[in-house]
Amino acid sequence: MKALVYDGPGRRSWTDHAEPGIAAPTDAIVRVDAVTICGTDLHILKGDVPEVERGRILGHEAVGTIVETGSAVTAVKSGDKVLVSCISACGRCEYCRKAAYGQCLGGGGWILGHTTDGVQAEYARVPFADTSTYVLPSGVSDESALMLADIVPTSYEVGVRNGSVKPGDTVVIVGAGPIGLAAITNAQLFAPSTIIVVDREPARLDAAKSFGADLMVRPDDAVAAVAQASGGLGADVAIEAVGVPETFELCAKLVRPGGHVANVGVHGAPATLHLEELWIKNLTITTGLVDTSSTPMLLRMLAAGRLDTSRFVTHRFGLDEMDEAYDVFAHPQDSDALKVALFRS
C-alpha cells in the first residue's frame, strides 16, 4: 500500500509500505476512505514531538470501512463505516473507567501517528477497535464525520468545556486555525455574549467572522480590543489555539481576575508564566489532551443537524495527492487553507 511516512524533522514521503495486519485480538483493519492532516502533524515534522520515530506512518484522523477484525472485537464488524478516533482507549484501565481516554494506561491514548503507525495510508490498523471507533449514523457523510476525529472534540473538551464557558461570557480565542474555528463553533453552544478571535492572517480572521465570531483583531490590538469589549474587565475565558509561547502569554494578559485560560495548542517550546503578575488574579489555567469522551454526543448532534462541520474543509484531494495536500495545509498564508480532506478514489 501507499502511506505518508515520517523520516525525521522536515522529511516526509508518500511511499510504498507493507499493509498492516491484525496484531492483537482487539485490533481492526480499516480501509481508509477519508483522512485529513492536523496541525500536530506539522509539529511532528518540525521536530516538536521527539517521541515520533523515523519510519512512522503519520495521521490520527480518518473515516474508513472495517475490512477485518480481531477475535475479541464485538462492537464493529467487516463492512461497517466508522470514524477512527484520534484517541485509542483500552477501556479497562483506571483512566478509561473515568472516560479520561487520553491518559489510557493500557496501551492507548494518543498513539496513532505518534507511537504506532497512523491513518494517512490506504489501510490502517486500529488498536482497541471496540472503544476507539464509532459507527457513522445514517446520512452522515465521510467529510462531515472526519472533523469529529480530532478538532471538534478537542476544541469542545480542552477549550470550551475545560474553560467553563457559560452564557453571557466574553470569550477570546487566540488563533483562527482549524482548532480556533472549532472553538467558535463549540463556544456558541453555550451562548456567550461575545466571541473575540485573535490572529495575524487576514484570511483566517475572515474565516472567523464566517464561523460567527463577533470581533476579529490582530495580536497587537488584542489587549485594547478585549478591554473595550468587556468593560475593562478582560475575558472570562481565553482559549489558546496555536501552541507557541507568545500566544499562551497573550492569553494570560487577556483574561480577567477570576477568569480561565484553556490551553489547547501543542507546544514545542517553553512559555513564560508570569506568576509575579498572575498570582493575585485568581486565575484557572488548564491544559489537556482530548479524551474524545464527547465524540458520541457530537456524532448525535451532527446526525440531528445541530452541529455544522461543513465549513472546515477548504481543499480536497485524492489520497495519492498527499504531498500536495501537505504543502497546501502547511502554507495557509498562500493557500487560505483551513482543513484539507483526502479521499480514496
Automatic annotation (TrEMBL):
GO molecular function, one term: oxidoreductase activity
Domain Alcohol dehydrogenase-like C-terminal: 178-293
Pfam families: ADH_N, ADH_zinc_N
InterPro entries: ADH-like_C, ADH-like_N, ADH_Zn_CS, GroES-like_sf, NAD(P)-bd_dom_sf
Top-rank lineage group of the source organism: Bacteria
Cofactor(s) it depends on: Zn(2+)
Sequence ranges assigned to domain Alcohol dehydrogenase-like N-terminal in this UniProt record: 25-129
SUPFAM superfamilies to which the protein is assigned, alphabetical: GroES-like, NAD(P)-binding Rossmann-fold domains
Keyword set, alphabetical order: Metal-binding, Oxidoreductase, Zinc
Family per record: Belongs to the zinc-containing alcohol dehydrogenase family.
Protein name (Swiss-Prot/TrEMBL): Alcohol dehydrogenase
